[in-house]
Amino acid sequence: MKCEACKQSAIISSSNGTFCVEHFKSNFERITLSTIKKYKLINPGETIAVANSGGKDSLSLLYIIAKYFKKTNNVVSITIDEGIAGYRDKTIETMKKYCESWDVKYKIYSYNDFAGATMDMITKLKPGIPCGTCGVLRRYMLNFSAAENKADKIATAHNMDDEAENIMMNLFQNDFEKMIRLGPVSGIAQYRGFVPRIKPFMFISEKETMLFSMVNGINALHTPCPYSGFGFRGVISRKIKELESEMPGSKRHMLDLMMRLKNEYSDAYVENPRNKLVDCTICGAPASEEICEACNVKLQIKQLKST
Ligand code: SF4
Ligand SMILES: [Zn+2]
Ligand SMILES: [Zn+2]
């Protein structure tokens, strides 16, 4: 297998090309920067909060954003600590090490401070697959922390595999509204207190982000969360991997279809009164119902702890 740019021995072949180490690195950065440019994800002077779990994907994203945007933008790393023993505590140490070496300031926000319980406690209070509850709290806290740090955007390391999973999950749940809120800039409606989420790695696969972290010497934990791999997302993730190996390019085609739907129906979505956001009556954050999902989780935890 030869690099398509220099004919030396290649280390990867993907829908983005076949490359040696050096051309893989430069191509990876080129795709990321062109996604940022094409969709206007980062504008000069904006404050960018990088959602940083301390894993390979988010550290690779922080590496590129720090490398190319630290001179023109204020960059802050935000870590949400779910409170998962033996997992998040380790990645937080890695996150601190890289933020210090790349001279990026970091902030940590915990579920325990916000909801009065860690994820480990929540799994005991509420048996079953915890990812739905975890996702609600993470989305809320990312938005809250980004707003607290006056960020204009939240950059997440969602890659092509993550986005394909989201598309397929929404397809099988017949959730068209959620489907068209995906894309390089998440969300459609603009609302006071809502910080848009951007995905510079959306057109890069999980395999490529992992390789990029390795060839750049980013030593991050590769162990997944102990609660991952279960439930609907786990099933969809396995099915997409099978599909991609039998029909290469499937993931990219899913993304392209979602983008076409988004372009076609975004205006109708914004104009539909059903999709209007309101202020949560408890915390004031943007919400689709009177009480936001995170406040509902918080109330539920409080109730479970008292019984
Ligand atoms: S796998 Fe589930 S529980 Fe673990 S961090 Fe992700 S959403 Fe949370
Ligand atoms: Zn090459
Ligand atoms: Zn609320």
Compose a concise summary of this entry.
The protein is an alpha/beta fold and 307 residues long.
What layout of secondary structure does this protein have?
Blueprint: E1 12-14, E2 17-19, H1 21-38, E3 47-51, H2 56-69, E4 74-81, H3 88-101, E5 105-110, H4 111-115, H5 119-125, H6 131-148, E6 153-155, H7 160-172, H8 176-180, E7 185-186, E8 197-198, H9 206-215, H10 231-246, H11 250-271, E9 278-279, E10 286-287, H12 293-306
Parallel strand pairs: 3-4, 3-6, 4-5, 6-8
Antiparallel strand pairs: 1-2, 7-8, 9-10
Helix pairs in contact: 1-9, 2-9, 7-10, 7-11
The chain binds iron/sulfur cluster and zinc ion (2 copies).
Number of strands: 10
* Largest sheet data: 6 strands, mixed
* Helix segment tally: 12
CATH superfamily: HUPs
CATH class: Alpha Beta
Cα shape: globular
Structure, explained:
It is a single chain. The chain is α/β, with parallel strands linked by helices and 307 residues long. The protein has one domain (35-273): HUPs (Rossmann fold, 3-Layer(aba) Sandwich). The protein is 51% helix and 12% strand. The strands form three sheets. It has a six-stranded mixed beta sheet, with helices on both faces. Strand 1 and strand 2 (17-19) form a beta hairpin. Helix 2 (56-69) crosses helix 9 (206-215). It is globular and about 65 Å long. The mean pLDDT is 92. The site of iron/sulfur cluster (SF4) has 9 residues, from helix 6.
List keywords for this structure.
about 300 residues; binds iron/sulfur cluster; binds zinc ion; 10 strands; two-stranded antiparallel ribbon; six-stranded mixed β-sheet; 12 helices; globular
